[in-house]
Amino acid sequence: MPLLEKSIQLLGKPMPKVITPKAHAIADYGIAALFLIGAVFFWKKNRRAAIASLACGAAEAGIAATTDFPGALQPRISFASRKKIDLGLSTMTASMPRFLAFEDEREKRFFRLQSLAMASVAVLTDFEPAHSKGEEKKAA
């Protein structure tokens, strides 16, 4: 999966950074909610997919709740470091069907789409908002 992560990073470099920290927080909580809804939906049909969805949702919500941006409960992770974390979580999400042995089942698509959404949010987010860029120039 490191190849997937590097590919996403390369494709994302020329993209405009249009997602603000607040929008990133909303996207994170929305993605986490979809994972939790997925866990409920998958529970009767595919327990492995339900457990994977629950784990991914808990990870996404936990990271969002501890990141230094609007909506955080305990801001301990700097927003600037989130890109690497997001790309790692995206890669983990994409690998869950193989890891939990349901890669030949329909539920795999849900994880691939969620992984794509997470990576897209990461590469389109401005992790260095204009006010912090200006502060860096003043400090120099």
What letter string, H or E per element, gives the SSE order?
Answer: HHHHHH
Number of strands: 0
Total discrete domains: 1
Q: Give me the oligomer status.
A: single chain
How would you describe this structure to a colleague?
The chain is mostly helical and 140 residues long. It has six helices and no strands. It has helices at 2-12, 21-42, 47-65, 82-99, 108-124, 130-139. Helix 1 (2-12) crosses helix 5 (108-124), helix 2 (21-42) runs antiparallel to helix 5 (108-124) and helix 4 (82-99) runs antiparallel to helix 5. The longest helix is centred in the N-terminal third of the chain and has 22 residues, at 21-42.
Task: List descriptors.
140 residues; mainly alpha; 6 helices; globular
Give the helices and strands, then pairings:
Elements: H1 2-12, H2 21-42, H3 47-65, H4 82-99, H5 108-124, H6 130-139
Helix pairs in contact: 1-4, 1-5, 2-3, 2-5, 3-4, 4-5
